[in-house]
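Exercise: predict the fold of this chain.
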Amino acid sequence: MGHILDILGAMLGWLTIALAACGIVYQAIAAIVLRRFIANAPPVAPRTDAVTLLKPLYGAEPRLFENLETFLTLDHAGPVQMVCGIQRSDDPAIAVVEALRAAYPAATIDLVIDSTVHGASGKVSNLINMLQAARHPVLVLSDSDIAVMPDYLSRLLDTLDRPNVEIVSCLYRGRGDGGFWSRFGAAGLTYQFIIGVVVAVAYDLAAPCMGSTIALKRETLARVGGFERFADTLADDHALGQAVIGLGHKLAVPPMFVTHAFDETRAAALWSHEVRWAATVRDVAFWPYVGVIIGIPLPVACLACLYAPGIGLALVIGALIARLVVVRSVDAAVGEPVAPFWMAPTHDFFSFAVYIASFFVRSVAWRGATLKMKDDGRISAATEQRA
């Protein structure tokens, strides 16, 4: 029995060494790929397309006014309609929308207040209700905590014009709006998530469709069955992208960033947020998610120290250097430091714990409700209360 345990221990030890080494190489490659990806950003000119922006809202989130305002100061020469969707007549987000209307009287800002429920996903129910007010043939969906640059629509529309591209999504960087824990979460998102998506897109390993932005034509949405098709889906953004791809079209991710605002003020809130994200990804792409461990080599290198201290220490140093290279590359790509360097490797240990925990999660807390996850990527039981 002792001999078998020794063999298992050696196998686990060498596995951690191999995973850490692969992770270091991956980080180095990812930094190079990111630089090339951003370098391919072409110059753009303002467009004249008629566009409807769909903004499902819930509550007066920190900096909600400022986030929405960025969509009203775009370099766009055509008609832009913003449709804000709210599900309760007492929602404090209504006051924010009214303030936005007062500040931008020339802008077309429509407010839809409708509590009709179409399925377990509150966000999708909101979108279904909002779509009735949409006037234009091009739809751009984005979460309420997203802020954008002036050339946002120009880059989206140019990408949507590519041959056979019928849906476009966007990379997003983090911004901490709620103090230390929100900035800590922003560091993890920016310095880990971005490189994973860029590598996946560059090597055609995945076609990520993210709630940060989804741009498509209204007729394309109708062809996949409308938002109604996703009323009971947790990862509705991913499912929408896959549905469009299923029609034989392409999903594209342009070389640009939007900003995702974190507002968590407590460690527990950030933990819940990241576990929900991780469990959702695990649910829609299990085996690719298993491979996420390659993207967090520092904690694995520390485990390797338990088996082979010398090799493990060398891997720890290599992992720290790789993280520094990634952080510098990402900061250069987004145009500014998102967080101090030390937050990136520290968050790696947080991410490792989230990764392990995510395999044991069968329900997630999402905006005031507990949603049970089914094997087919759908959700059941309690209905979401938020958009």
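Check your answer against the key: The mean pLDDT is 91.
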